[in-house]
Design goal:
With 416 residues, this protein is of the alpha+beta class. The protein is built from 11 helices and 13 strands. Helix 1 packs across helix 3, helix 3 packs across helix 11 and helix 7 runs antiparallel to helix 8.
Length: 416
């Protein structure tokens, strides 16, 4: 029985080759040849079926991400219309064109074909799982159940944020990213922590907050005033004349204000540094009893305010502590710890990638072990590089792959 041959199909995106999978049957009662792996990493085979499942999952993820970007664009357009800031927002047409370009790399990713660009991208995390596992083994570490549970929760949340469930994607894809997160956590757990990364002691933290309080003391000072909310400028001007004539502020407020309760207690406080902008020139140096207004309330309904300074007060350190702690949490060394964690993980993964024994089916591309960062320059990540587009000088070849026959466009010298 003659093998079935299928011509190479091209995706909509120029230069993206396809691996085409066509159905095949056994010949003369002989069963199909065993499946050939898409890659082998340190003796561990990665099947073509797994790569295909990851590609499909990646496409689902791209579509969900695009929908999220469309929602963000619509929200940005609405926000810009309500409060113009000059922020550039892409047009719906431009965003749609960008999305079509992204999905073009997945053209033909049905049951019979996957693009080689998408395939190499999907194969990379599957290879990296084995690289990370070797890095963990080299440190003497081990992934714990707790780390896998946390990793799965993190991946699930990321999917939920995009409106997806784990069941919407292939198990191979979800498990790969859960394992990558868990392996990274296992690597971090093996790094010795330094004293510089520990939080400050309670006494040291209090001292730090006190220093911040002193540096911000002037900005914490508030001007508190009683208010009259007059219905319009004319009413506000008339109320001001009565106050200047010596009438009691509370009495005028009870007679004029649309919110009589605003005239008692001096609960309307603003930062003293903003007083001039809010109440007018001279407010930042005002004293108890000084009058300001009428001025536009900013409510857009024509109402105006009159203000009588009740007090100028600076909160104590203890009064301000909760606010200071919120703005300045005790995370001394957190940035240093994150940087050290990242550097430790990257160094271990770089070393594991360099020593890894990786074989890639040439239809899926070639393995690039990457390069470590040196002298402040970023390194090159370890990854599967897609095959070079063969262009016009190509020939089709057919190989058995389990119950399928795979046909791909490759350089003429690679097969017949």
């Amino acid at each position: 029985m003659e093998r079935r041959r299928t011509l190479v199909r091209r995706a909509g995106l120029a230069g993206v080759a396809l691996i085409v999978l066509a159905g095949a049957t056994a010949c003369e009662g002989i069963g199909p040849v065993g499946p050939s792996p898409a890659a082998t990493v340190n003796g561990h085979d990665i099947s073509s079926a797994d790569v295909r499942d990851v590609v499909r999952a990646q496409r689902v993820l791209v579509v969900a991400t695009q929908k999220d970007e469309e929602k963000q664009r619509a929200a940005a357009v609405k926000a810009e219309a309500q409060n113009p800031t000059g922020q550039a927002v892409p047009s719906a047409q431009d965003l749609a064109a960008q999305h079509r370009s992204q999905l073009a790399a997945f053209d033909g990713t049905g049951s019979d074909a996957i693009s080689t660009g998408a395939a190499s991208s999907a194969l990379t995390p599957l290879v990296l799982v084995q690289i990370y596992a070797d890095a963990v083994h080299e440190t003497g570490g081990k992934v714990t159940d707790a780390q896998r549970t946390t990793a799965r929760a993190d991946v699930t949340k990321q999917l939920t944020d995009l409106g997806l469930k784990a069941a919407d994607l292939s198990k191979v894809f979800v498990d790969a990213y859960v394992e990558l997160n868990a392996l990274q956590a296992a690597l971090v757990a093996e790094r010795p922590a330094s004293a510089a990364e520990q939080p400050l002691s309670d006494a040291e933290y209090t001292k730090q907050l006190q220093a911040i309080y002193q540096s911000q003391r002037s900005s914490l000072t508030q001007l508190c005033a009683d208010l009259i909310v007059a219905p319009n400028e004319a009413a506000g001007t008339a109320a001001r004349k009565r106050l200047d004539a010596g009438e009691d502020f509370a009495a005028v407020a009870a007679d004029v204000s649309q919110d009589p309760t605003a005239a008692s207690g001096g609960k309307n406080c603003i930062a003293l540094t903003n007083a001039d902008a809010a109440l007018g020139k001279g407010a930042s140096t005002a004293s108890k009893g000084d009058l300001f207004g009428p001025f536009d309330s900013g409510a857009g309904d024509g109402t105006v305010y009159l203000a009588k300074v009740d007090r100028i007060e600076t909160p104590t350190f203890e009064d301000s502590r909760a606010q200071l702690e919120q703005a300045n949490p005790n995370t001394q060394g957190a940035d240093a710890k994150q940087a050290a964690d990242d550097a430790f993980v990257q160094a271990k993964v770089d070393a594991a990638a360099a020593r890894a024994k990786v074989t890639i089916d040439p239809r899926y591309g070639t393995w690039d072990p990457g390069s470590p960062s040196t002298g402040g320059s970023a390194g090159r990540p370890a990854q599967v590089l897609p095959p070079v587009d063969p262009g016009a000088t190509s020939a089709a070849f057919t190989t058995d792959d389990g119950a399928t026959t795979a046909t791909s466009s490759v350089p003429a010298s690679a097969g017949s």
